[in-house]
From TrEMBL:
Its EC number is 5.2.1.8. Keywords: Isomerase, Rotamase, Signal. Residues 43-132 form the PPIase FKBP-type domain. It catalyses: [protein]-peptidylproline (omega=180) = [protein]-peptidylproline (omega=0). It comes from Favolaschia claudopus. InterPro entries: FKBP2/11, PPIase_dom_sf, PPIase_FKBP_dom. GO terms for cellular component: endoplasmic reticulum. Residues 1-18 form the signal peptide. PANTHER family: PEPTIDYLPROLYL ISOMERASE. This is peptidylprolyl isomerase. The keyword Signal applies. The keyword DNA repair does not apply. GO terms for molecular function: peptidyl-prolyl cis-trans isomerase activity.
Amino acid sequence: MRFGGILASVFFAAAVLAADPPTELGIETTYLPDECPAKAAKGDQIKVHYTGTLFSNGDKFDSSLDRGSPLPLTLGVGQVIKGWDAGLVGMCLNEKRTLTIPSDMAYGSRGFGSVIPPNSALVFTVELVGLDSKSAQALREHDSARERFCTTAQRYISPFSFCWGKSCSTVLCT
């Protein structure tokens, strides 16, 4: 049984290495938590643990796990390669995915130093370990503003309206 498992792993690895490079982003969810109160969206502050390998031969070129520190980033604003900006959207906290990224959504014809050759497709295993969503941030800002305004305004009039950002709200202070 143990030999069969090892043999199956070898054949699987050989099949992956023999495959043609991807032309489209591949997203495979490998772990989905039971609860998902918020999903990562463009503009969210997130933290990701990852391991990156070359699609062509499986060689690892980078891993946040080796450093023991997740990568912080703002999603969807071009801080990372296009394959990440697209492939991390919709992730739940603690969700794990495998992203298979074509060259044109990675480093393209320029490659990345001596680590990633030009025109290389990449494979990343990623785990979302931190999520500070824009909607959660807006809610915290709203609650903070409500507390400030209610503390002052409740002595004078309630309900009242106030605005923050581009949104206005009517608040009943109790």
